[in-house]
Write a structure and sequence with these properties.
By secondary structure, the protein is an alpha+beta fold. It has one domain (23-115). 22% of the residues lie in helices and 36% in strands. It is built from three helices and four strands, in the order αββαββα. The chain has helices spanning 11-16, 60-73, 110-115, and strands at 25-35, 47-57, 76-86, 98-106. A four-stranded antiparallel beta sheet has the order 3-1-2-4.
Length: 116
């Protein structure tokens, strides 16, 4: 498999019918945690938030590890549950696991109410 598959191609059909093979599965992750710094590129201020992310990973365990690892890189600390769902992909697989389409949804918890 090449490093990337052109997103213009019919990669979905090739994947569906086995012409494009990958050792990875596609997941969507929702992780509960805290944004530890203003993450302007994602439009989320500090505080409690859910991080949503799509991944190509070898297992649900690897997808959870990716949520923690990628979260640390973008100032997000997982402090609660990580929910993992098997979902259809929006981007083609690559030679290595990867995450994409990261989004944050803020919520107010008890700690946020005390500091407000």
């Amino acid at each position: 498999m090449t490093d990337t598959v052109s997103e213009d191609s019919d990669w979905r059909l090739k994947l569906k019918y086995g012409r494009l093979k990958t050792p990875y599965s596609h997941f969507t992750i929702i992780a509960e945690g805290k944004v530890t710094a203003d993450v302007n590129e994602f439009g989320c201020a500090k505080g409690s938030a859910f991080m949503g992310m799509k991944t190509w990973a070898s297992s649900t365990d690897e997808a959870c590890d990716m949520a923690r690892s990628i979260g640390e890189q973008i100032a997000f600390e997982v402090t609660g549950r990580i929910q993992v769902y098997d979902t259809p992909p929006e981007k083609p697989p690559r030679a290595n696991p990867f995450g994409y389409d990261i989004k944050f949804t803020r919520f107010q918890d008890e700690d946020d109410k005390k500091t407000a």
